[in-house]
User: What shape does this take?
Amino acid sequence: MSQVRHEIKEAPSDPDGIKVGVERAGIAFTVNGAAISVNVPPLRRLSSVLRDELRLTGTKVGCDAGDCGACTVLVDGDPVCACLMSAASAAGTAVTTVEGLANGRLSALQASFLDHGAAQCGICTPALLVAATALLDTKASPTEAEVQDALGGILCRCTGYRKIIAAVMDASRHAGNLDFRLPLSGHAIGSSPVRLDGVPKVTGDEKFGGDSFPADALAVLVVRSPHYHARFDFGDLDGWVKKHPGLAGVFTAADVPGKNCFGVIGPFADQPALAEGFSRLRGEAVALVAGEREAMLDLDLSDFPIRWTELPHFLLPSEAQGDGAALIHESRPANLLTKGFVERGNPEAALADAAFTVFGAIDTSYVEHAYIEPEAGYAYMDGDTLVVVACTQAPYMDRDETAKVLGLAVDKVRIVPTATGGGFGSKLDVSLQPLIGLVAMKTGRPAALAYTRNESMMSTTKRHPSEMKATIGADAGGHVTGMVFSGDFNTGAYASWGPTVANRVPVHASGPYATPNYRAEGRAIHTHGPISGAFRGFGVPQATIMQETLYDELAGKLGMDRLEFRLKNCLRNGSETVTGQRLDSGVGIAECLESLRPHWARAIADSETFNAANDASKRGVGVASCWYGCGNTSLPNPSTIRVGVSASGDIILHQGAVDIGQGSNTVITQICADALGLPLERFRLKSADTAITPDAGKTSASRQTFVTGKAAEKAGRALREKILRFANVSENASLRLDGSAILIREGEAARRIDLAALDVDAEGFVFRAEETYDPPTLPLDAKGQGKPYAVYGYGAQIAELEVDLKLGTVKLIKITAAHDVGKAINPLLVEGQIEGGIAQGIGMALMEEYIPGRTENLHDYLIPTIGDVPPIETILVEVPDPEGPFGAKGLGEHVLIPTAPAILNAIRHATGVLVTKIPATPTRIRAAIRDKEARA
Assistant: This one.
C-alpha cells in the first residue's frame, strides 16, 4: 500500500489575507520504533521533517549538502544523510535517530563516548553515535581502520577524532557499566570525571542555537551583498512584500533605532548591523525579510528590489596600501587599522655582530573556523525586555552591542546562550543577535534565524592572512642574539579583533626563547576581503610559523641538533621576555622540550632507517615550540563567580563562562568544589544568562580555566570561610553534606548545621559568596615594554610524516605533544583540547585555504577528516604558576600553535624544501621540489 497521500493544505494567511498554497502529502514511516504520519511537501528534506515536525532535534543540520554528515540517521539500519533524503523517499522505512539509541538508559556506545571524552561541543556527536551504532551492529570489535571507514563522512571540528575512535573500539567494555566517576570531596582536581554537561550531548537532548525555535516565530532571511564593494538602492519594498504571501515585512538600516555600528573593541567599532547605501565586503547584510515559516522556506530572493552598482575593490594589503588606493574607512589613512610594536635592545647591531643570521618570508592564507553549527538563534519580547537566545562565546558583549544597535538600555536586553556547536573565536563577534532582535522589536513576534552554511562562511570572520618577514641571528655558541620581525595582517573590511592580533603578535613573535635584542611590528590592514577576527591564537600561530621555521634553518647553519638549539635558547625561571617582563616562576618550556628528548631520538632514527630503504617517499621529523599569554593583552580582564548553598543542601554555581566544548562547565566546577571542600556531585550549574549569572567574561584567549577558574577558587574559599565562621571552627575543619545538613568535623569535635532551619535569601541561598578575579597586568609603553600577561602557557610538539616526492602528498605518521598546563585540573579534558587543537593545526598546515567567492561550503573548503589525524601522544607537563587556580594555566589556544610549524619543518627535513605559502598543499610542495631540482 502506498505510504504517500497528496493534498493541498492551506498555510497561514499573510496580512492581506492572501492564502499560501503548498502541495503536501501524508507520509508514513516509523521513527525510533514508533509509527509516524506527517503531512509535508514530498520533497522536504527528511532532516527538516525530523527536526521541525517531530521535534527530534538531536539530528543536526550543518550544511544541507551532505558534506558535514551532522544529520546522519539510520534508514532501515543504514547510515544516511537526512538532509539529502526527501520525506517521500522515507515513506515506509524505519528511521532511527540519536534519541532512539537508548531506551531509558544510555547505550554502551553512549557511555563509552562519555568515558573517553569523545564529545566536546557535541554538535557532531549524535551523527557519530548513529553511524557507529550501525558499525557495531555488524562488528562488535571493529579495528581502527573500520571505524575510520564507517565515520569518514562525518566531520568533527573539536575533538581531533582520536577519542572518538577509542570510544567506538572500546564500546563493548561499557555494556552495563555506566559508572561516571564523580569524585568525592577533596579529589576533584586531577581527576577526570565525565563532563557535567556530557549526558545531553550523547542523548540528543542538548539544545543548540537552532534547536528550540518557538512554533509561532517569524522566519528571517538576510539579503546580502554579492559584491566585494558596491553601492545599492532599494526599489519598492512594500510592493514586493505584497506580492509574496506570508511575508511580515522587510527591514533595512532605516529601521535600526539605535547606533547602527558594532564591534568587539569599543574605540575601533565600525561595522553596521545593516549596511547603509554601500557594502564593503561580499556577504555583508543589507536587509532582512521576515515571514511565516512555510512562506519563507521556498522564498526566492532573486527578484528582491535592490539595484547594485559594483565599485572597485582590493583584496590584498599591498593593493589597499598602494598609491592612490581609495580608503575603506575615511578615518584610517592608508587603510591601516592599527599596528603593534615591541622593541628591546639594539637588534640591528646584534644582527650585524651575529656569527650566523637567517632571513625568511612566509605568507599564510585565510582560514575558516568551520564549526559544524552555523550561527542560529531566536529573539522575543518579554514585556519591555528583548530576549535573545542564540549560540555565542560572549553573552555580555552581545548584550551591550545589541542594546547599542537597537537603542535599548543595557538592562532591557537579555542574552541566553544556547549550547554552542564550536566557536574557536568567530562566535565572539556579534552576528545575528541585533538582526533577529530588530525583527522581534518591530513585529512583536518571536523571530528566528539560522544561517545557511554558505552565508556563515561568506559573512563571518576568518583567521587573518599574513605576509611576514623576519631575520634572526645567533652567536658562535648557538645563543640567539637578535631578531627583527614584521607582519602585515589582512584584517578585511571591518576591525573585529584586528587590533588584538596586531598587538599580540609582536609580544609573541620571538617564541618562548630568550631574545635580548628584538624588534617586531604587526600591522592590521583593511581590504574588501572577509572580516578577519579571532581564531584560536589571535595571529600567534602565523608568527610562530615564521619564527620556528627560521629556528630550524639557524640550527642547520650552526650545525646543532634542532631540539638542542631550542633547549639552549628557551626561557627559564628568571628570564626576561621581549617586553621586559621578568618570569620569576612557572616557566615550563624547558620541561616540555626535555620530555620530548627520547621521542625525538627515536623519530630521527626511524626516519633515517626509512629513508635509507625508500626513494619514492621520504620521512621527515619536525619540532616546534609555543608560548601564549592567557587573557587580554595589558587590559582589564575580570571574571565573577557566584556560589551558594541552598536549604536543600545543593551547591548552586552561577557559572557564566560559556562552554563551547572545551569543558569549562566541568573544570570550573572542579576548582570550586575543591576550594570549598564539598563533593562535585552536589553541585548544580546555572549556566551563562545575562539576567541571572555574573559576568565571567568572554570565552577566548585561553582565559577561562585561569581567570574564571581563579574567581571560582576565590568564591569557593570564601563560601567555605563563611560556613566555618558560622560553625565557629577553624580553617582545618572538614565539611560533609548529609541531605539538607552540613556536617563539620574538627578533631573530635563535630557540628551539624540544619540548612532547612536557616533563613534563605532571594535566590534561595543559606550561605553564599561572590568573588571577582582580574589578572595583574601592566600597560605596554611606546616600545612595547611592560607586563602584558600574568600567566603564560608553554608547549612543544614533534611531527613525523612521509612525503611522496612525485605527488607532493603528505602522510602524517604521529604527533607527540608536550604541554605545560601548570596543573591538569581534568587530564582527560586536557588531552581532548590538545588533540583537537592539533587537528586544526594540521588543517592550517596542509589543506585549509579559504578563497573568497570560491570555498564557501564544506565541499570545496577542506578540513581534516577522521582519516587525516594520526596517532597523538600527549605528555602533560605540570609546572605550577602561583597566579593560577591550584597552579593551572590556560591551554585552549596554545595547543594549535606548534603544530603547523612542526609539520612544515618535518616536510623540509624530508624533502629539503620549505613551503613559504601556507597551506603546504601537494601542488605547492611539488613546485618547491621542482624548483630545488632545477637549481641543483
Summary: The two ends are 74 Å apart (CA to CA).
